[in-house]
What we know:
Blueprint: E1 6-12, E2 16-23, E3 26-34, H1 38-55, E4 58-65, E5 69-70, E6 75-76, H2 90-93, E7 100-104, H3 105-116, E8 125-130, E9 134-140, E10 143-144, H4 177-181, H5 183-190, H6 203-222, E11 226-230, H7 232-236, H8 240-252, H9 264-267, E12 268-270, H10 277-292
Parallel strand pairs: 1-4, 4-7, 8-11, 11-12
Antiparallel strand pairs: 1-2, 2-3, 5-6, 8-9, 9-10
Helix pairs in contact: 3-10, 6-8
Amino acid sequence: MVSEAMVAGVELGGTKSIAVVGRGRDIIDRFRVPTTTPAETLGVLSDKLAEWRREHRLAAIGIASFGPIAVAEGHMLPTPKPHWAGADIVGPLGQGFDRVAFHTDVTGAALGEGRYGAATGLSDFLYVTVGTGVGMGIIAGGRPVTGMMHPEAGHIRVRRRSDDGFVGACPFHGDCLEGLVSGPAIAARAGKPAHLLTAEDPAWRDVADALGEAFATLFLTLSPARIIVGGGVGLGQPQLLPMVRERVVAALGGYLGFVDAQSIDERIVPAGLGEEAGPLGTLVMAEDLLGDA
C-alpha cells in the first residue's frame, strides 16, 4: 500500500545523480547533478534535500547508489571510481531524516519495476541490468535480498561453448558473466561498440549463450516468477531477448515446469520503466520504511 506521506529519494549514479521528492508514482520535483567527487556531489545533493525539507514535510528518504556498497554501514566499498572508495553516503544524504533506506542502484530499480513496472504484483523476481556492467537486484518475498553484502550475481561463472575462446573482459574474473556480456566485453570481442553491431553479428550469439546459461542458473537457484532485463545492451538490441529465452529453455532441458517454451515469454521480459525505474525505486524504498514503522 502506497503511503500518502511525501518522501525523498536519491539515485547516486556513476556519471550523474538524481534527487526526487514525491508521493507514490507522482514525482513532484527532481534535481540532477553530475557525479564528481563525494564532497562536491553529496554536498550539492544535501543542500537540495535540506531545501525540500523546508518546503515539504518529508517522512523518509531512499538512497540507491552505484557500488559496491556496505549496505548496513551506509558507505562505499573499494570502487574503481576515483575518490569514492570508503565515502560515507548515508551520513550526508540522510541528515535530517528520521528514516533512511540505503541500497544499490539496481535494487532501487528492481523495487521501482516491482511497484509500477514489469514486475507489478509479483513478490519474487530479478532485475538484471546489462550495460557498462552487469548488476542484479533480487527481490524475494517482496524484499531485497542481502546477506553479508548486496548480490553480485553479475560476476557468476557460466558454462561456455567449447569453441568460444574469448578470454573475457572482467579485470577480476576474466570470463564471468559481466566479462562476457557487458558493453566493454562486447566491444573487446567484436572490435567495435555494441551499438555499431548489426543484429546478425555473431557476437550476439555469444552474448545470448552467456545470458541464457546465467538465467537458467538463476531460475534453478532462486525460482523467480520473472527476470526483468534493462540496461543499454539489454534493451538496445530487440533480437537479443528472444535468443536468450531460447537458450534458457534449452539449458533447462525441461526440468522446471514453470519455465518452458510456452511460458518463457512471460518469464523473461524487458524492463517497463526505462530511466524512471531508479528514481521511482528510491521513493518506493522510502515509502516501504513508513509501512514498516
